[in-house]
From TrEMBL:
<dbReference type="InterPro" id="IPR036388">
    <property type="entry name" value="WH-like_DNA-bd_sf"/>
</dbReference>
<dbReference type="Pfam" id="PF22381">
    <property type="entry name" value="Staph_reg_Sar_Rot"/>
</dbReference>
<keyword id="KW-0238">DNA-binding</keyword>
<dbReference type="InterPro" id="IPR011991">
    <property type="entry name" value="ArsR-like_HTH"/>
</dbReference>
<keyword id="KW-0805">Transcription regulation</keyword>
<feature type="domain" description="HTH marR-type">
    <location>
        <begin position="8"/>
        <end position="138"/>
    </location>
</feature>
<protein>
    <submittedName>
        <fullName>MarR family transcriptional regulator</fullName>
    </submittedName>
</protein>
<dbReference type="InterPro" id="IPR055166">
    <property type="entry name" value="Transc_reg_Sar_Rot_HTH"/>
</dbReference>
<dbReference type="InterPro" id="IPR000835">
    <property type="entry name" value="HTH_MarR-typ"/>
</dbReference>
<dbReference type="GO" id="GO:0003700">
    <property type="term" value="F:DNA-binding transcription factor activity"/>
</dbReference>
<dbReference type="GO" id="GO:0005737">
    <property type="term" value="C:cytoplasm"/>
</dbReference>
<dbReference type="InterPro" id="IPR039422">
    <property type="entry name" value="MarR/SlyA-like"/>
</dbReference>
<dbReference type="GO" id="GO:0006950">
    <property type="term" value="P:response to stress"/>
</dbReference>
<keyword id="KW-0614">Plasmid</keyword>
<dbReference type="InterPro" id="IPR036390">
    <property type="entry name" value="WH_DNA-bd_sf"/>
</dbReference>
<keyword id="KW-0963">Cytoplasm</keyword>
<keyword id="KW-0804">Transcription</keyword>
């Protein structure tokens, strides 16, 4: 019988643990803004390219419509976004930041720089890790899982 691998030596475990640590790290930063991390991502995406369909937003953020729609409903209830059904196709919904959402997006735009400063890692190291993660994500999306 082969010995089971050490979970902490697995790439997937370390990505999971880093993601979990990031979520905990962001929480006290986002809490005063009244945002969850996924809501923050929506706010950033819309502040870069406002007024787009739920499908396009989900594609950019890699979120399924089943996840994104309730998230957008909550953001609408908070007064951060408006959702409008398209007249030519009522199945399609356009999402836009409200004035409150735009004001919050301006405040939230400073967060990435703040995070980078807190991490105390050289910018080129952060850029390198980000590039590796992009490549890994792309490979995983294109590779069928093996059977064991």
């Amino acid at each position: 019988m082969t010995q089971a691998p050490d979970p902490q030596a697995l790439l997937c475990f370390n990505l999971y643990a880093a993601s979990h640590a990031f979520t905990r790290f962001y929480q006290p930063i986002l809490e005063p803004l009244g945002l969850t991390y996924p809501q923050y991502l929506v706010l950033l995406a819309l502040s870069r390219d406002d007024g787009r369909g739920v499908g396009a937003l989900g594609e950019e953020l890699m979120l399924d419509t089943n996840t994104l729609s309730p998230l957008l409903k909550r953001m609408e209830a908070l007064g951060l976004v408006s959702r409008t059904r398209m007249a030519e196709d009522e199945r399609r919904v356009m999402v836009q930041l409200t004035d409150s959402g735009k004001a919050l997006a301006i405040r939230a735009a400073a967060i990435p720089e703040c995070i980078a400063a807190c991490l105390d890692l050289p910018g080129e190291e952060i850029a390198g890790v980000t590039q590796i993660l992009h490549r890994l994500r792309d490979v995983l999306r294109q590779t069928p899982p093996p059977s064991v």
